[in-house]
# Entry
Amino acid sequence: MPRSVLVTGGNRGIGLAIARSLAEAGDTVAVTCRTDPPEGLLAVRCDVTDPAQVDEAVTEVERVQGPVEVLVANAGMTKDQLLLRMTEEDFTSVLDTNLTGVFRVVKRAARGMVRARGGRIVLISSAVALRGETGQANYAAAKAGLIGFARSLARELGPRAVTVNVVSPGLTHTAMIAGLSQGRQAAILADTPLGRLARPEEVAAAVRFLASPEAGFITGAVLPVDGGAAMGH
Ligand code: NDP
# Structure
């Protein structure tokens, strides 16, 4: 039976790779996007900073393909700045999208999973969450917050057979890293045992596994897909 899947920010980058991978595996996949919808997938407009849009998007997905059984909270953004130059808005907007936005989507979609007594929730964090990164105090705080959020929900929702896990990618070949200087990228790769960027499809493979029936006894886990960059963190 195809499952009803929702991937936030699934119109490009890692989210699109995740959506395509789950669709290939036979699931019925919807994505949220703010701008260009991808071809071949149900796309619903949603800015995760707006609770009303989150509610409308999940309602639409439920109407078209049934209650969400697999949720991948992937939408995220960066506003890099050194601490002394980081404005309050730089900090709160990244938290609002990357952490509170995940709370909004998970809370809305989990309702159906609790009712159905089963489901899969996968959150996309980052290797930066526990390692930290110069210029990314806002982003790392949000991504680290996701881990405590996921583990709390793993406890709350475990009795309803809903698993909650985190995938933690290292530097991945998408538009998001365009703002990172060549020097900074080179420094990160020098500190990555596998010495290269991740491909979005490699992150998608980890998500696909955690979302699969085979991963039914894995919850509260943080799975790095980072070429070894964050080992020991
Ligand atoms: P992209 O910039 O390519 O894609 C980001 C996605 O998030 C887009 O679909 C974008 O939608 C969506 N998004 C951003 N803000 C919002 C918002 N307020 N509401 C709804 N959707 C939003 O980045 P990646 O694919 O690289 O990133 C995907 C996830 O992976 C993010 O959570 C990121 O933090 C994480 N990650 C990325 C790494 C990397 O090196 N690339 C490393 C580790 C983690 P739209 O098209 O409308 O802008």
The chain has one domain: 4-225. The chain has a mean pLDDT of 96.
